[in-house]
Amino acid sequence: MSLLFFIPLLSGLWSEDQQAWRETLQVKLPLLFLPLAFAAPFNFSRKQWEWLAYIFIGTISAATIWSLFHYAANPTAVNEGYLKAKSLLTPLENDHVRFSWLVSVAILTAICILYTKRNSPRITVILLSFILVWLIVFLHLLAARTGLFCFYIILLVAAGWFIYKKMQWRYAVSLLILLFALPVAAYRLMPTFQNRVKYFKYDLGYFKETKYLPGANDAVRVISLKAGYGIIKENPGGGVGFGDVFSETKKWYNTHYPKMAERDQIYPSSEWLIYGAAGGIPGLIIFSLVMLIPFFIRTHTGLAWRILNLMAAASFLFDIGLEVQFGVFIYAFVILCWWKYPRHSKKV
Q1: Residues 245, 7: Cα–Cα separation, whole Å
Q2: Which end of the chain is more exposed for a tag (fewer CB within 10 A), N or C?
Q3: pLDDT tens string 268-283
Q4: Which range (98-107, 209-218, 243-252, 275-284) has the least confidence?
Q5: How far, in Å, CA of 74 to CA of 319, rounded?
């Protein structure tokens, strides 16, 4: 994981904008220090780790209730905002992308507890099941694509696992029915979800042709992906350095889309492309390896561990979570907590 810090660190050797490079390093410091902290030989009991999981689920659930209160205060305005690429107010300074990913992780955590602790007291099972259902409902109410995409990864992988490993077709079929039924139900019952879909359809034409439409969220993201790919093609050996990614991206916009408003000139909307643009093909390969290595680490919660890392890797395909402080900390802390529990926890 710390390689994700050392690549930006080394890129300072060929970054012209040293101030931007230093700011990038400051944001990515958790990728250096958190792995060192979790590598220390401290041990929690499994019971303590489970309590940490309960606290995490409870905190995320409380945060969703906070968002729900804001929605209830003026639902009409919020619903209309979804037709303009806006979303429900969330914690993390309204970072709905990172918050939706945390909600999907809380869902995965709750499912793991329910599956492995089926003999828990009935009240615990009922309460946790209720919270699980609520988190799924909220995720569709929020209608943030990152969280929804990760949630459906959970359903799809779990269904495949029940078929491949357990031959339990009834569970697999139930999950696949949910996979298709939940979006349909959410579209019919939740105005926020419905309006998100309507906005996506409106933006789809620009999205397909990568035409520039001021303020069009998806079309601008696709153009940004083209910009990142273009920078990699022009600098395949070592990239432009993390200090110059944004300035080089803006140059690409000015060359290929001279009428693009400055507010729409964003970073390439993919961590793969960010590391490729900054470090060239070597940076792209190293980033891919860092995302791939966890799948070969044996853990006690093997399937859930792989799903979690798949959710993280998938979220980085069309998001730049490692370029913002919340995203860096959340990714490192959550992944390392899950790594620490199965490898180093003591039995009670």
Answers
A1: 13
A2: C
A3: 999 999 999 999 999 9
A4: 209-218
A5: 29
